[in-house]
Amino acid sequence: MMKPNKGIRVLLADDEPHIIQFLEMGLTNEGFEVKCVENGIDAVHLAGSFRPHVVILDVMMPGANGFEVCRLLKDQGDNIAVIMLTAKDEVTDRVKGLTLGADDYVVKPFSFEELLARIGARLRNQFPDLLGEVVHGPFVIDDRRKEILYQQTVMTLSPTEYELLKFLIINNGIVLSKAVILDRVWGYDFGGEENIVEVYIRSLRDKLGDKEHRLIRTLRGAGYRVDLPC
Fold first, then answer.
1. pLDDT at 190
2. Structural domains of the chain, count
3. Is residue 1 very low, low, confident or very high in pLDDT (cuts 50, 70, 90)?
4. Are residues 152 and 77 in the same domain?
5. Which of 104, 121, 123, 126 has the highest local Cβ count within 10 Å?
């Protein structure tokens, strides 16, 4: 379970009140400091004074859409993690957002747990000093040292193994396809074969002693899912 998120500021920008209410309540309960707006122009103005670590942007908003807000925030040069919410799982929208500097995206409808995991991933990548060590079941992720401890023992991992295992852990319980793993770990412009994921999964299982695939499960035709013991 993640340590308290006290002091981490999140700005929510969405023109759907029920989504704002749902996310504000959930993130506040997780310890985040949260402010909300319902249009893109207010998001840009509030970001200047609130100085959020994470901005969650809906693509379709009045005043200025999420793409334009993302561009304006990134042009300011501040270290802000931008996660875009979109109702369309279209490659063109995804590529456009990433090109403008978005750090991640979530397709509606989504679970709160998925969004929380993606926020945690961005914080680890861009603000590791805010979190320090983060505990997930038998794992401890220390992004400052680029180390993962399993059952209190530091694992020997290559940089790619580290990023892959971290991605799997923070998405505990979520099925991740090879395409998604390649996108988030190797990068959306990776030109290699999907089978590289299988090679690295096999290596991680060996290092975890996961011979029966109880920790990193394979869901045939769907992808992989980490199931952390209670």
1. 67
2. 2
3. very low
4. no
5. 123
